[in-house]
Design a protein that fits this description.
Layout lengths: L4 E4 L4 E5 L10 H9 L3 E5 L16 H12 L4 E6 L1 H12 L4 E7 L10 H15 L3 H12 L6 H19 L20 E6 L4 H13 L4 E5 L6 H4 L1 H12 L6
Parallel strand pairs: 2-3, 2-4, 4-5, 5-6, 6-7
Antiparallel strand pairs: 1-3
Length: 252
């Protein structure tokens, strides 16, 4: 399966990987900024999100991204991953380190840590709503949990639309199992920045601290004002951080 994606711009490649609360539209506030800065920018939808169908058989998100880059003839790219997208980005960078030039993890998840109490409570509440057929309630729960206090109504409405789309696609599809390879964070060789939000769940902040400690040379930026989706909540604050870390196009 080829992931639905957008691509624009010239210069070094940056691939944007979305949160599981959203789809590739979450990067609208960064899209033209990065293109105008001189980058070639790619943003895919993972399976079951946006315009990419849900998986029908075993799947591996990092391998899907590798296959997309191969299809596009892209050997190396900088990766910016939000939440679940950050989880995929860290796995890609560990499994194919020579293909990653920079790594930005925005409030990243990781499968190397067991869920904390707050993450388990959220998952249980979401499961209960979905089992009861209350899709609107599950959407509302996700928006309340993951969108920080600086976000306006338009951002909350956008996240709700993206989350609703994901539920509609995934709940209509048969179950398919993830088939993900193991990985070792010690293999990550790209310069790495981990961004965490002061209003995010404790479990996500713990993941950011864990990844910063385990990836050699990684630096962490704590955004006291941010929730879980800072690139949407206040892009005017986040975009300069991304541009500064990614560097001038000639440098990557």
């Amino acid at each position: 399966m080829t992931l639905a994606h957008d691509i624009a711009g010239d210069g070094p490649c940056v691939i944007l990987l979305h949160s599981s609360v959203c789809d590739r539209r979450m990067w609208d506030p960064q899209w033209h900024v990065l293109v105008d800065a001189g980058f070639r920018v790619i943003r895919p939808d993972f399976r079951g999100y946006g315009e990419t169908p849900a998986p029908m058989s075993d799947y591996d998100e990092a391998r899907d991204i590798r296959d997309l880059l191969d299809l596009l003839g892209i050997e190396r790219a900088a990766f910016v991953g939000s939440s679940f997208g950050g989880r995929v980005a860290q796995e890609f960078a560990a499994r194919w380190p020579s293909r990653v030039t920079r790594l930005v993890l925005l409030c990243p998840a990781t499968r190397l840590l067991a869920p904390t109490d707050d993450l388990r409570a959220f998952g249980a509440a979401e499961d209960a709503l979905l089992e009861a057929g209350d899709i609107d309630g599950a959407v509302d729960l996700n928006v309340r949990t993951w969108v920080g206090p600086r976000a306006g109504d338009s951002v909350r409405d956008s996240v709700a639309r993206m989350q609703r789309r994901a539920f509609d696609v995934q709940l209509a599809a048969p179950d398919a199992a993830a088939d993900r390879d193991d990985f070792d964070l010690r293999q990550v060789s790209a310069p790495t920045m981990v961004i965490s939000g002061g209003h995010d769940l404790d479990g996500m902040q713990r993941a950011a601290e864990f990844l910063t400690a385990r990836i050699e040379g990684a630096v962490q930026r704590q955004l006291d004002w941010a929730g879980h989706l800072p690139s949407l909540e206040d892009p005017e604050r986040v975009n300069p951080l991304l541009i500064d870390f990614l560097g001038a196009p000639a440098s990557i």
